[in-house]
Amino acid sequence: MKQALHIVKIGGNIIDVPEALASFLANFASIPGFKLLVHGGGKIATSMAAELGIQSQMIEGRRVTDSESLKIVTMVYAGWINKSIVASLQALSTNAIGLAGPDGAFVVSKKRNPEPIDYGFVGDIESVNADGLTALIKNGLSPVFAPITADKKGQLLNTNADTMAQALAIALSNHFEVTLTYCFEKQGVLMDPNDDNSVISQINSANFAQLKADGIVSAGMIPKLENALKAISQGVHSVRLCHADFVSQPDKGTLIQA
Fold it and tell me: Of 148, 178, 154, 245, which Cα lies nearest the Cα of 36?
């Protein structure tokens, strides 16, 4: 029987607010057993780039990563943010280890095709070193991943944190019974976006299609749910979308099923 592993992804809505991050990390540290955290970047990279006179370019909400921006996001994501989280978790008696994709070749990617939109130095994941990660986790370490990867030639690449969490969950499901939790600013997927209590308790591939057709699920929620359903279809035990406050409460949020 496989041992349980909790993989959690957090984004800028938590990282950008020190009190929210501190509260989340306390809850994450309280999750029993094996756990792994994937974090995004938040607004710190954008503000630091501005201070250095580097303009941040966004297309449809996604960062275009030129060579100068790549230096900034690597320093901020894999440096300041990652090590701050690791230090906080160590203070909470969680034996965290900060990682990015190039460490141990744990996540290898390739540069995204510049057609039809050139996002610059952005990576699409090709492989995960699940055996190496499993050894770390079973030795009592809790990996904390920054969304920076590299290709096989050593080129650093900025990588979507949601996708990174999904790829790690799928690869590690061969070794563990994986629960993947995406934390965001809502209580879960909402039937009514203006009513925080209208959480849809469960979504599967069949009712996802209907929710899209009815316009209940739209915009940025669609790729989140597509990521979740792909993870389920490729061996992940369960996927949940919930508010960061509920990360240690498995009965909260929206559960994604096959």
Answer: 178
| Structural domain that includes position 237 | 3-256
At 88 the pLDDT is 98
> DSSP labels for the chain?
-PEEEEEEEE-HHHHT-HHHHHHHHHHHHTS-SEEEEEE--TTHHHHHHHHTTPPPEEETTEEEB-HHHHHHHHHIIIIIIHHHHHHHHHHTT--EEEE-TTGGG-EEEEEPP-SS---BSBEEEEEE-HHHHHHHHHTT-EEEE-SEEE-TT--EEE--HHHHHHHHHHHHTTTEEEEEEEEESSSSSBSSTT-TT-B--EE-HHHHHHHHHTTSS-TTHHHHHHHHHHHHHTT-SEEEEEEGGGTT-TTSSEEE--
d(CA 45, CA 72): 6
Residue 36 reports pLDDT greater than 90: yes
Is the model's pLDDT at 225 over the cut of 70? yes
CATH assignment of the domain containing 26 = 3.40.1160.10
| pTM exceeds 0.85 for this model | yes
Q: How many domains does the chain have?
A: 1
Cα(207)–Cα(191) distance, integer angstroms:
12
Residue 22: pLDDT band (50, 70, 90) is: very high
